[in-house]
Design goal:
It contains 21 helices and 23 strands. By secondary structure, it is an alpha/beta fold. The protein is elongated. The N terminus is likely disordered.
């Protein structure tokens, strides 16, 4: 804010500031140079001026509303002074370089304290620091303790010093603006990820000395995409700016609110002494967001999920600290929103999944995925009639169970490239003649790819493997998606068979089964595993399997039992009509 009153440089009477003076002060404040530390580019100029003019004092002086302040100072005893006692405030009111050969003989200056007392100014020459639009911010001046004249040539040199100082000032402003762009979010003006990490590093250093704690809070807006889709991105951006403002208002001035990306913000709560301090902040956040936002004439309530981690209790490494907050946030989001602190037992599982997902991205290129082939045996003759391709992930740290990495691959979309690799490897294994027939598991996400059938056709054509030697296994849930029936018919048209995998562990709709173009039904191992146990559960499992075989056989479809691992289990299945 620019004040509307000030001090007359020739006296102490308050006068209303003119419009021109208000504009000049606004230009000065835009450079954000007042009260900043010394900088070598300005110090070098005053040092050089002292040598050039052979005078004891030189200043880069800025004239504020009621004071003058020196950015660079050589030889002068103070770093600022009242504007009412300032030579420079008079100099900027004139045109060109102001020269005072002997201040003791000057009607206005002879009574100034710095003339009558230290540093006993006798001579002065000041060239104005002028902005491109003509505002005089201050002067580049040299000061002597003896009377001195300044010729025209010396005045030109002093004006050149002022121009150099002004050029450095403009360069400084440009660099600060670039730094602001690099360190702040363009939309909200909040610190960005880079600046936040710097501030977090510094806060942790202070905490190491003070013994207090630092809290990191990762805040994600719930269902923000719905707002963008409903109101448009322009309104969504306006809402993000309003959210940033409320977050700042709900936190202390010593805290930091930054925007990480999209609809994700991060909080830095420094100098935390107890859990109660955190509770106060989360309560203020809840109260702030209890008031609806206004988009056009529509009220919108915004909900968020906040995960918290504490330095040094939860982690001492910054990445780990942020990772723990992220894990806690996703746990809260899954539970429906709100806030929660990091809990090692609960959240390390999520952290491990993130690490595994990162590693899974590189698994193919690092040859960590391998296929193994499990024989499928005809129950009566015990002859191997096919092999099922089983995917295994073998990391340097050990084998990762398919139960752990297949769901990750499916939710991340990596199942598509991985599945295509598996299909190609399995068909190539059949091409060698080692396998009579190969069965490959295919996920619903793979089937949803518009070019799945064409990709399958290409692999068969490239390998030369007969289509009837390939069987694709799909789960019940994926097969019962309405649009998949058409895709399955296209697959069958190629000559490739399809199997209904894990039957009984999904919708188990026999009515739907009669309409699906499948050639094989695989009974889920949850039904077959208890077979052979001399327990009620074992006997019930055998009867359930008997019923499934009878029903499926009535549809003219063969069945495959998963998880048969002992001769006793195989004999019992034969007895129930396998």
């Amino acid at each position: 804010m620019i004040p509307t009153r000030g001090t007359d440089p020739t006296g102490s009477t308050e006068v209303a500031l003119s419009t021109a003076e208000q504009s000049r002060l606004a230009a000065l404040h835009r450079f954000a140079v007042l009260d900043t530390p010394p900088e070598p580019q300005f110090d070098h100029l005053v040092e050089l001026a002292v040598r050039v003019f052979d005078m004891p004092m030189a200043l880069v002086s800025f004239v504020d509303e009621d004071r003058q302040w020196f950015k660079a100072n050589y030889g002068f005893p103070t770093f600022e002074g009242p504007r009412s006692e300032s030579f420079c405030s008079v100099a900027i009111a004139q045109d060109g370089v102001m020269v005072v050969p002997d201040a003791t003989q000057h009607e206005q200056f002879r009574t100034y304290p710095n003339v009558l007392g230290e540093p006993h100014i006798r001579s002065y020459a000041g060239a104005p620091l002028i902005t491109p639009d003509g505002h005089k911010l201050g002067t580049f001046c040299v000061i002597g303790t003896e009377p001195r004249e300044f010729g025209e040539k010396e005045q030109e040199i002093l004006a050149s010093f002022a121009q150099m100082a002004m050029a450095e000032l403009k360069l400084r402003q440009a660099l600060h603006e670039l730094s602001h762009v690099a360190m702040n979010d363009a939309l909200t003006g909040l610190p960005n990820r880079v600046q936040f990490r710097q501030q977090l590093t510094e806060a942790c250093r202070r905490a190491d000395v003070s013994g207090e704690k630092v809290v990191v809070g990762l805040l994600d807006l719930d269902r923000f995409k719905l707002i963008n889709d409903t109101f448009g991105h322009a309104e969504g951006d306006r809402l993000l700016k309003d959210i940033a403002r409320r977050l700042k208002e709900a936190t202390a001035t010593s805290d930091v609110v930054a925007r990480m990306s999209g609809d994700e913000f991060v909080l830095l709560l420094a100098d935390v002494r107890s859990v109660a301090d955190i509770a106060l902040v989360t309560k203020r956040l809840e109260d702030s967001f209890a008031v609806p936002f206004l988009l056009g004439d529509q009220e919108v309530f915004v909900h968020w999920s906040l995960g918290l981690s504490v330095y040094p209790d939860d982690a001492k490494e910054l990445d780990a600290l942020l990772g723990h907050a992220d894990a806690a946030m996703y746990r809260v989001k899954r539970a429906g929103g709100g806030h929660a602190a990091f809990q090692r037992q609960e959240d390390q599982r999520t952290t491990l999944q993130v690490e595994r997902l990162t590693a899974l991205h590189r698994a193919l290129e690092q040859d960590e995925l391998q296929l193994y082939f499990q024989p499928i045996v005809q129950a009566g003759s015990q002859a191997v009639v096919a092999h099922e391709a089983l995917l295994r992930w073998i990391r340097p740290s050990g084998i990762v169970s398919p139960r752990d990495f297949i769901p990750l691959a499916e939710t991340s979309g990596l199942i598509v490239p991985i599945g295509r690799w598996v299909l190609r490897q399995a068909v190539n294994a059949a091409k060698t003649g080692r396998l009579q027939k190969v069965s490959v598991n295919v996920s619903a996400l793979e089937i949803r790819q518009l070019d799945f059938t064409e990709h399958l056709r290409w692999i068969l054509m490239e390998s030369g493997v007969e289509p009837q030697r390939v069987l694709l296994e799909l789960t019940e849930s994926s097969m019962l998606e309405p649009r998949f029936a058409a895709v399955l018919k296209e697959i069958n048209a190629l000559g490739v068979q399809t199997a209904l995998d894990d039957f009984g562990n999904g919708y188990s709709s026999l009515a739907a089964l009669t309409n699906l173009p499948v050639q094989v039904v695989k009974i889920d191992r949850s039904f077959t595993a208890p077979i052979g146990e001399d327990t009620p559960a074992g006997k019930r499992a055998l009867e359930v399997v008997r019923g499934i075989v009878t029903l499926v056989s009535a549809l003219g479809l063969p069945t495959v039992a998963e998880g048969i691992e002992t001769p006793e289990q195989a004999d019992l299945l034969l007895k129930v009509g396998w």
